[in-house]
Design brief:
- This protein is an alpha+beta fold.
- The protein has 4 helices and 4 strands, in the order H-H-E-E-H-E-E-H.
- It folds into 2 domains: 86 residues; 93 residues, Gyrase A, domain 2 (2-Layer Sandwich).
- Strands 1-2-4-3 form a 4-stranded antiparallel beta sheet, covered by helices on one side.
- It is rod-shaped.
- The termini are far apart.
Length: 194
């Protein structure tokens, strides 16, 4: 039988497998480095993109904050203008109030009643005068009560006054002044709101 030596072939095969192993190991390491690099690049780009978005959002938030401040300033100006407008409207409504007051006083005063002093503090009016009798004072109070310009009529006092030599009665009335035009305006405003 012939003798065949397989040792060199086995040695070559082992050497070839070792080379293939190192090549595969190198390829796997290269592939791992490539995947790591791609992953690093992807996440780096994602972070940069998110930072750009964050910067954009921060800029927009800053713009919106400025706009909110401007809106607040405009709201303050609006509130000031509305307050001024209300004052002007109130002055406009009260402009003719004194004329109406004296007109109503003339229309409501009965014969035999004489006003000596009229004092106004805000919407409260105090009237002092003389009357020929108690019934004329009560008639005057009734007429004031019927007027739409007065309410809360109160008699502070009525007493005999002997200083004039006649039998006249001295009296003092308190009333609240009401502007009926304002009630109509308020009713119209409430209807518009409803």
């Amino acid at each position: 039988m012939a003798k065949i030596n397989l040792l060199p072939w086995r040695e070559e095969r082992r050497q070839q497998q070792t080379n293939e192993y190192f090549i595969m190991l190198g390829l796997a390491a290269g592939l791992a480095l490539l995947l790591f690099g791609l992953a690093y690049y992807y996440f780096d780009q994602s972070i940069k993109f998110q930072n750009k978005r964050n910067a954009y959002m921060t800029g927009e938030i800053t713009k919106l904050d400025k706009q909110i401040e401007e809106i607040k300033q405009l709201e303050k100006q609006k509130a000031g203008l509305i307050a001024r407008q209300q004052v002007i409207e109130e002055l406009q409504a009260n402009r003719t109030q004194m004329v109406h007051l004296f007109d109503e006083l003339v229309q409501t005063i009965p014969n035999g009643v004489f006003l000596e002093k009229i004092t106004q503090q805000g919407t409260s009016i105090s009237m002092e005068g003389y009357s020929q009798s108690h019934s004329r004072v009560s008639d005057y109070m009734r007429r004031l009560d019927e007027s739409e310009w007065f309410n809360k009529i109160e008699l502070d006092y009525i007493k005999a006054d002997d200083t004039l030599g006649t039998h006249e009665q001295k009296f003092k009335l308190s009333v609240k002044l009401v502007n009926p035009n304002r009630k109509k305006d308020d009713d119209v405003d409430e209807e518009e709101v409803s």
